[in-house]
Amino acid sequence: MKSTIANLSTRAPKPKSKAALPATASVRGMGAWLAIVRTYQQCSETLSDGIKPLGLKLAQHDVMMNLLLSPTLTQQQLAERSFVTKSHMSAVLMEMAERGWVSREESEQDKRSKVITLTPDGLALAQQAWAIQAEVVKVMMGDLSNAQIKDIQDFSLKAHKALALHRALVKE
Question: What is the predicted pLDDT for the residue at 25?
């Protein structure tokens, strides 16, 4: 097998000129950015695997975690706080209501708004999902010191603000 690979490489045409790297390949921090994206993807997949036996999808989990932190939110508030797109939020909430995990009631302040709360079954399920999420975070943080975790949090908040500002400027 090794000789076949060697023969193929000797027969392959050699490029006439070395291709220039795209400008982004030399951007300061590109490796760090890739590490962050890969970590986020791995975290999402690990969490998804963990909550799947509960019958939960990531979008539903996200809604539940937000409702654990703030037990009564409008659909609009949930859309702003979660990773679920505004256009998908209605479908997610409808399915969760059909499963008996959330209730959707008319807001007393604004009759056009729906107030979302966890049902007792939804709360029990959310608490199970919270424990799974806590374990994923524990594994992810490993043996990092509190100072290292704080540095990661500080960096992430700073990067978030910078990206939000950039996005706002680009939209103008």
Answer: 63
